[in-house]
Design brief:
This protein has 1 helix and 37 strands. It has 531 residues and is an all-beta fold. It is globular, with a radius of gyration of 23 Å.
């Protein structure tokens, strides 16, 4: 089934610094902003997107509203400076008999022995196909016949995945990769040509592969790339987001506040007169193509449907104001929308079925990598692993540490046909985390430290208070802290000193943890001039 996987982000009012950890890449650090106790959660997402420096003209998202005033305890966070180089993780070497044993003892009790995640799965559904997972640091993983397999280990920051006319899989990362039907991977695009792309679409009739970047629209004919500058779509076009091919084989591109279609070799901008409020900025995010070829375009506060004459109309997604960051097509050509801790299925008539984190239907809030399969299942990742919801709303949760191949931040998910049978997933593998907090070269004692999948930028009580998993500790007189029994996965950290929280999101910490061992993230260094 054709899926269009997207990445949207919510602009973070934050300062950025570098934090390092063993095996970690450059880290982001964000400065917390004040928020009201009552409704900040509903008005602001703790979600971000890695932006390139060239994307200077990006317009703000409509849903990015100012947070309201916090409690007295939740004051403006300190802005830290570049972190010190962290220490090496304490992992014994299997082949080096002379290796020095780790200073710390392993966890007091050994980790639970996992069930075989690649055990024989139930019989596959008719039209079954694999599922692909694009990870932040660990490449491209395939689930097929009950087994997880890394098919592309050297891809970083996988942003989109599509299937081509010949059955090949294309993945957009730092480079563009093609995995042929023989399983062999080749690089077909680089940072130089066509550039760093964000979204892909495949023409299943003509065979071309399309991509968008901050520069323009790019076409791959199976041999070479050609490009069109974004000015070809319109003189005032700034940021390009998603790309799609409709049932007629026409190419669609979404820019910040407009929709463009290439018909007969010429670009046309869709007339949105009368749609939305006068002067309304749509902030388009993504496309979804229905089974009938109908085009849907998701924007900051709803969805537009493009009729046979390309006339746009608003889809009735139910009562009230909703801001959905993800869009896909479900069973019976229904729309499936994903927002903060919520999934809504609608036929466009206002009648909806809703599943939510608060309602106990799944265990994550920051939804990403959103897609569907031919069985009507909904697949999505979040800060607490990933979830598959079947057509009846029954969830299969893969929590951090349960699937070794997925111990990283899952950015995108793509399913083929009816998707694969789900394998049995074992218990969470856990280890310990330790680190140190310093400021101006001096260890900070008695500082509160929290860690979770996505520390909240707008704080009600603490940054990790509402997380499915929360680890907490306090620094000793030498500034050292330790958090025990942490599921292996990707985490952010929050440190509170003098009543102020500072949040750190490390790109791949702590995906290199080992079960039953202690992983050292190094030092978290606060700015010397912070007050």
């Amino acid at each position: 089934m054709k899926n269009y996987l997207k990445h949207t982000g919510i602009a973070l009012l934050a300062a950025v610094a570098v934090v390092s950890a063993p095996g970690c890449k450059k880290a982001e650090e964000k400065k917390t902003e004040p928020a009201k106790v009552d409704k900040a959660e509903d008005k602001k997402a703790d979600k971000k997107e890695d932006k390139k420096d060239d994307k200077k003209d990006e317009e703000p998202k409509a849903e990015d509203k100012k947070a309201e005033a916090p409690k007295v305890d939740d004051k403006k966070a300190e802005e830290p400076k570049k972190a010190e180089e962290p220490k090496k993780a304490e992992e014994p070497k299997k082949d080096d008999k002379a290796a020095t044993p780790p200073a710390d003892k392993p966890a007091d009790k050994p980790a639970d022995k996992p069930a075989d995640a690649n055990a024989t799965p139930p019989a596959p559904a008719a039209g079954a196909g694999p599922a692909y997972f694009g990870l932040m640091n660990k490449g491209l993983v395939k689930l097929d016949n009950g087994k997880f397999e890394v098919v592309l280990a050297d891809a970083k920051f996988v942003k989109d995945i599509v299937k081509g006319k010949d059955g090949s899989i294309f993945a957009a990362a730092m480079a563009i990769h093609k995995i042929g039907t023989d399983g062999k991977a080749v690089e077909i695009g680089s940072f130089d040509n066509p550039g760093s792309v964000d979204h892909l679409a495949a023409d299943l009739n003509g065979g071309n592969l399309y991509a968008t970047s901050y520069k323009g629209v790019h076409t791959y004919d199976g041999k070479s790339w050609s490009s069109e500058e974004k000015s070809k779509l319109g003189a005032d076009v700034q940021l390009l987001s998603d790309v799609a091919v409709d049932g007629k084989g026409r190419l669609w591109v979404a820019s910040s506040n407009a929709l463009h279609v290439k018909d007969g070799g010429n670009w046309k901008t869709i007339d949105l007169t009368g749609v939305g409020k006068q002067g309304y900025k749509f902030f388009f995010k993504d496309f979804a193509i229905g089974a009938s070829g109908t085009v849907y375009a998701g924007h900051s506060s709803g969805v537009l449907k493009l009729g046979a004459d390309d006339k746009a109309s608003e889809v009735n997604t139910g009562s009230g104001f909703h801001s959905y960051s993800e869009l896909a097509i479900g069973s019976g050509d229904t729309l499936v929308l994903g927002g903060i801790g919520e999934i809504v299925i609608t036929a466009g008539d206002g009648k909806t079925t809703t599943y939510s984190e608060k309602g106990g239907n799944f265990k994550g809030k920051m939804i990403r990598g959103f897609t569907t399969d031919g069985q009507g299942r909904i697949w999505f990742a979040h800060e607490n692993g990933m979830t598959v919801l079947d057509k009846d709303g029954k969830a299969t949760d893969w929590l951090p540490g349960t699937v070794a191949e997925l111990n990283d931040k899952i950015e995108v998910i793509y399913t083929v046909g009816s998707g694969p049978a789900l394998p049995t997933v074992g218990p969470q593998q856990k280890g310990n985390i330790k680190g140190k907090v310093i400021k101006a070269g001096t260890a900070i004692a008695d500082a509160d430290v929290e860690m979770c999948g996505s520390p909240a930028m707008f704080i009600k009580t603490t940054p990790c208070a509402e997380a499915a998993f929360k680890g907490a500790g306090k620094t000793d007189k030498d500034g050292n802290f330790e958090v025990k029994d942490v599921p292996i996965g990707n985490y952010g950290f929050a440190v509170k000193v003098d009543g102020k929280w500072t949040i750190y999101s490390m790109f791949n910490c702590c995906t290199e943890m080992k079960a039953g061992q202690t992983y050292d993230i190094g030092s978290i260094t606060l700015r010397a001039d912070s007050k």
